[in-house]
Amino acid sequence: QVQLVESGGGLVQAGGSLRLSCAASRTIFSVRKMGWYRQAPGNQRELVAAIISGGSINYADSVKGRFTISGDNAKNTVYLQMNSLKPEDTAVYYCNMYSGLTTRDYWGQGTQVTVSS
Fold it and tell me: Are 65 and 85 in contact (CB under 8 A)?
């Protein structure tokens, strides 16, 4: 069974930076989308950033200009560089990959990001 393994979360002061990493435990073929979602207490899970096959990138309006997503489809790795962090960025961040071959979404276990004011 494929697992997505995340790392890089933690506690940081407002204005600081963190880099999240995610890698698949086994090869996922035909990845069409790689991305990061987050969920704060009492809120629904929301898209933070995603790379769509073909190269297009989407960001939530709240993180544009501060977060940068990058990744490698062939290596099944995806990263999220988060700069100028704000307390409202505090959430559990989840890695996601969608396979066009299996038509399945794969999710990581989540990594906590806490930004103190």
Answer: no
Do the strands 111-116 and 57-59 form a parallel or antiparallel pair, or are they unpaired? Answer: unpaired
Cβ(31)–Cβ(23) below 8 Å? no
Beta strands in the chain (DSSP E): 4-7, 10-13, 18-24, 31-39, 46-52, 57-59, 67-72, 77-82, 91-99, 104-107, 111-116
Determine which helix (DSSP H) or strand (DSSP E) holds 3, and give its type and residue range: none
pLDDT tens digit string along 52-103? 988 899 999 999 999 999 999 889 999 999 999 999 999 999 999 999 999 9
Tally of CB atoms within 10 A around 54 = 6
Token pair recorded at residue 9: 């979360």
Among 114, 89, 116, residue whose Cα is nearest residue 9: 114
DSSP 61: G
